[in-house]
Design a protein that fits this description.
The protein is α/β, with parallel strands linked by helices. It folds into two domains: 136 residues, 3-Layer(aba) Sandwich (Rossmann fold); 78 residues, no CATH class. It has nine helices and ten strands. Strand 9 and strand 10 form a beta hairpin. The longest helix is centred in the C-terminal third of the chain and has 16 residues. It binds adenosine-5'-diphosphate and magnesium ion (MG). The site of adenosine-5'-diphosphate has 11 residues, from strand 2 and helix 1.
């Protein structure tokens, strides 16, 4: 089953076509990779899907419902969560409060504080931050701030999770741990689209990859097909 269908997605910033007539779909349960050079339109694609921007044209069908033009909070409550390329934790709040916000406001359910608290505890355990629940988020290392963001997204009970450069800026050990984390998220039954420049991670985790360049989809295929595609090597991967 296809959980997401993107058709003719287009977003212009003034004269710049940041995303141009992009079509793709996401199968329920998969981890789809989204790659391409800087400025290719990857983050803008996430911003359109998550409702930060309204597309100029095109459809974003999530479980068959068109999300185009809907507000981010509405989209989140439908089961679509995201993280940010430039980490956006609430810096002055502690880890627990950051994730609690996701649990309270990211789902349409009405829940008691004790129910929300137990959900947050479970997620912090899953993500490996149980021993840092009262740390001020803004004071944490990059990798831990990224984990807080993932935890906050998971607290909204997503069916589809958008990860924007989760591995960027991490050391090799942290990249390895983050790869395991993404696989564990998939095992929970959550579908993932990940934007990533760390090729080792993308090639290892994703069975299917989409390549954007100048706002257009220039390739789609398995890691093997993408890494040997002449077009992709020319514009992105290099020899
Ligand atoms: N809010 C915005 N206003 C104007 N231009 C933007 C905005 N957001 C992105 N862009 C431009 O759109 C293009 C695609 O950006 P982006 O989606 O961030 O690329 P990527 O994530 O692939 O590096 C870039 O040229 C960028 O400068
Ligand atoms: Mg980006």
């Amino acid at each position: 089953m296809q959980i997401l269908q993107v058709e003719g997605l287009t977003k212009n910033f003034g004269g710049l076509a940041a995303v141009s007539e992009v079509d793709f779909h996401v199968e329920e349960g998969e981890i789809l990779g989204l790659i391409g050079p800087n400025g290719a339109g990857k983050t803008t694609t996430f911003n359109l899907i998550a409702g930060t921007y309204e597309p100029n044209s095109g459809k974003i069908l999530f479980n068959g419902e068109n999300l185009a033009g809907k507000k981010p909070n509405v989209i989140c409550q439908k089961g679509l969560a995201r993280t940010f390329q430039n980490v956006k934790v609430f810096p002055d709040m502690d880890v627990f409060q950051n994730v609690l916000l996701g649990a309270f406001f990211g789902t349409p359910e009405k829940k008691s504080r004790s129910q929300a608290k137990s959900e947050v505890e479970e997620i912090l355990d899953f993500i490996g931050l149980s021993d840092r629940t009262d740390m001020v988020a803004g004071s944490m290392t990059l990798v831990n701030q990224k984990r807080v963001e993932v935890a906050r997204a998971l607290a909204t009970k997503p069916k589809l999770l958008l990860l924007d450069e989760l591995m960027a800026g991490l050391n090799p050990t942290e990249v390895g741990e983050s790869m395991e984390l993404v696989k564990r998220i998939q095992k929970k039954g959550i579908t993932v689209i990940m934007i990533e420049h760390v090729m080792k991670a993308i090639m290892n985790i994703c069975k299917r990859i989409i390549v954007l360049h100048h706002g257009q989809k220039i390739a789609e295929g398995t890691p093997e097909e993408i890494s040997t595609s002449k077009t992709v090597i020319e514009v992105y991967l290099g020899e």
